[in-house]
Amino acid sequence: MTEAAYRNDFLKEVEAHVEAGHEVKRCMQCGVCAGSCPFGPYWQHSPQKIFMMIRAGKREAVLSSDAMWMCTSCYNCIARCPRKLPITHIMHGLANYAHRLGLAPKGQPTRDFAVMFWQNLARRGRVNELKLTLGHYFKDGIGAGIKQGLAMKAVGLGLYKAKRLNPLEIFGGHKVADLSGFHAIVAKAREIEDRKRGLAS
Amino acid sequence: MTGNIATNSTLLVVGGGISGMTAALEAAECGKEVVLVEKLPTLGGRTAHLYRYFPKMCHPTCGLEINLRRLKGNRRVRVLTMTEVVAVDGERGDYRVTLKIAPRYVKDNCTACGDCAEAISSEIANVYEYGLARTKAAYLPHVMAYPQRYVLDPSIIGTAEAEQAKAACKVGAIDLGMAEETVQLNVGSVIWATGWRPYDAARIQPYGYGRYRNVITSLEFERLADPRGPTGGKLLRPSDGREAKNIAFIQCAGSRDENHLRHCSRICCMASLKQTQYVGEAYPDGSGKSTIYYIDIRAIDRFEDFYQNVQADPGVSFIKSKVASIVEDKDGNPVLHGVDTEGYHRYATTHDLVVLAVGMEPEANSIRLPDSILTDSSGFIENSADGGMFGAGAAASPLDVNRAVQSATAAALRAIQVIHKTAATESTA
Known about the structure:
The structure holds two protein chains of two kinds. Helices cover about 55% and strands about 0% of the residues of chain A. By secondary structure, chain A is mostly helical. Chain A folds into two domains: about 5-100, Alpha-helical ferredoxin (Fumarate Reductase Iron-sulfur Protein, Chain B, domain 2, Orthogonal Bundle); about 110-195, no CATH class. In chain A, about 25% of the residues are buried. By secondary structure, chain B is of the alpha/beta class. Chain B has three domains: about 1-100 and about 180-195 and about 360-429, FAD/NAD(P)-binding domain (3-Layer(bba) Sandwich); about 115-170, no CATH class; about 200-360, 3-Layer(bba) Sandwich (FAD/NAD(P)-binding domain). Helix content of chain B is about 25%, strand content about 25%. Chain B contains eight helices and 24 strands. Chain B has helices spanning about 20-30, 60-70, 115-120, 160-170, 220-225, 270-280, 305-310, 400-429; strands spanning about 10-15, 35, 75-80, 85-90, 95-100, 125, 135, 140, 150, 180-185, 190, 195-200, 215, 245-255, 290-295, 315-320, 325-330, 335-340, 345-350, 355-360, 360, 375, 380-385, 390. A five-stranded parallel sheet of chain B has the order 3-2-1-11-24, with helices on one face. In chain B, helix 1 (about 20-30) packs parallel to helix 2 (about 60-70), helix 1 packs parallel to helix 8 and helix 5 packs parallel to helix 6 (about 270-280). Chain B starts with 9 loop residues before the first strand and ends with a helix. At the A-B interface, helix 2 of A face strand 18 of B.
């Protein structure tokens, strides 16, 4: 091992660019978050592991981990953390940062859905549930989409009858009153957030 | 007790545990007049509830006996049990203290024969056994109780039981007409040796204390291990009375936790290391097994060798992990869930009994201190703004018995300085 292997700028990078990243170094590795996570054994890295990896300078491994994308925001870890670390927020912050750098895992379903959801919402300021659902069903191809759609047919019809699903939403759909104002707000928010995190827009 | 025997050269010590007794005796042996008040019917405090001390594994009764002997031989200490401080007015060197003395219903000619307890059937939870056993409503707090006098619980006063107890007393020591008294006295300085209490383990929700019978506190485990305790020294678990052989100790149960006690309680690591030795003693065939779940072991001060000896004990294993949660299986066994830090292995381990190494909460959090008392962010007493009142022992910081005694001696010295300065000012005036 060379000395360079021990140089660790990744923690500083996380502190500078990730939401609540400055809290990472307060972790004392007790393991309560890992033991409390309902995803338990089903993901690559627990928050405890992620925080240790950050301090160990494992930049690629952290940013390409699926862990941050598996978080369901149940807040069990935050409730139990003896140091009150905002673990959920840090995990989402890391997910966002990895996504911005293009290092987040490709084809990770929750990441794909998050992107789809954001694009759907950002277009017209309202979630178009019909398009979002169809987009989700057909993400793996036409065959898979039809199969999924048929499986959920009864639910869809029920929603239609209860006036919770409007088929006409397929043509554009509803939107906020001041659409250009909404887009300006989103652009400004992104600009402020990027400035705060030291990221290029 | 009247006000005129205490003057501003008198020192008041609040709390009759090992720290309060020490502070009172150190000052009295320096020639100071001391009033020692204790809320409970006996001196001894939490120390008297312990089975053994670390690191020498000796019995607390020994240290208590030495102190009680010092006390009996010293005429300068006036002991008031069942007494609480209601108010402190005045300033450094000249405090006026109001005390409330609860009725004991037993006079000082009691011979501690126990006939009153024999005569009645009402029972109350035994506080000395942390509620693991019951005692008669006329009781001697414990064998080392000082004063060696019975107490009548207020719950039987006014009932036929109280009359039966009175009738049974051959020396006429029971006085059912005793009432609460309020007295005032002048003192020059006050030492607050109000001690600690175990953190309420039921508030650590994921560990299930109070819901799962086989999850107990380290204080309760002391009583289980004591041959004079509720199980005669057998490590019987509460749910089914079966011998617990596979015992888990969970460290930092409430300590070092922003959701509970933010401080490190310091004693719990050594207490659990000590308690693993109780398990070894209880099963001389080596069938007892202890597992310590910890964040990091803080064997305070010079006790690293004790830790190393326990590490070498084949009956003890260590898992570096703060347990995330406990669930109970169908047989009432606690199952511990978590992830360890040495390899990130996920575990779900079944034990017979779980001992929570609960933290030390300052008892002062449950009483109303004078406004001028300064406390830290956990409620431990530092001193008073005017420099005339001091914290001592576990009221001032989470300390083991040894360090509590040192702290109490230091507090006594500071209080003596206050009294000396007051006396000097008066003689020149």
